[in-house]
Design brief:
Number of strands: 4
Helix content: 40-55%
Radius of gyration: 15 Å
Number of helices: 3
């Protein structure tokens, strides 16, 4: 298997894992009230060596997740890619982001949460 073929296989696995995490997060917010403070809570994934920033962002975009290079937010976020996928303003958004992050973490990704109230 060539390096490109291996990278393509890893990409397919990532897409499946991301979609699995999205489905878990979507189910977690079914019937959830959107109470609480408006926020910008989101999962942040640590950039892995397999893909460049641009490739990683492209993979998440392909799955329907907006992705931003967090190093532009300040040095504390260097090496992370933010995954804002706002599913509400308050509780729904936080619950979706946390479930998404936990599912990615269970699947082997290095993930953190970013919390910010508006």
């Amino acid at each position: 298997m060539t390096k490109k073929e291996m990278k393509d296989e890893i990409r397919k696995i990532w897409i499946d894992q991301i979609k699995t995490a999205m489905n878990k997060a979507d189910k977690a917010i079914e019937g959830c009230e959107d109470n609480g403070t408006c926020n910008f809570d989101m999962a942040m994934i640590k950039k892995e060596s397999t893909f460049t920033y641009a490739e990683t962002i492209e993979i998440f975009n392909e799955c329907g997740i907006r992705a931003d290079k967090m190093s532009e937010w300040g040095r504390h976020y260097s090496g992370y890619i933010g995954l804002p996928n706002y599913k509400g303003q308050g509780e729904r958004n936080t619950k979706w982001a946390k479930t998404f992050a936990d599912s990615l973490k269970e699947q082997g990704f290095t993930v953190s949460m970013y919390y910010q109230c508006d």
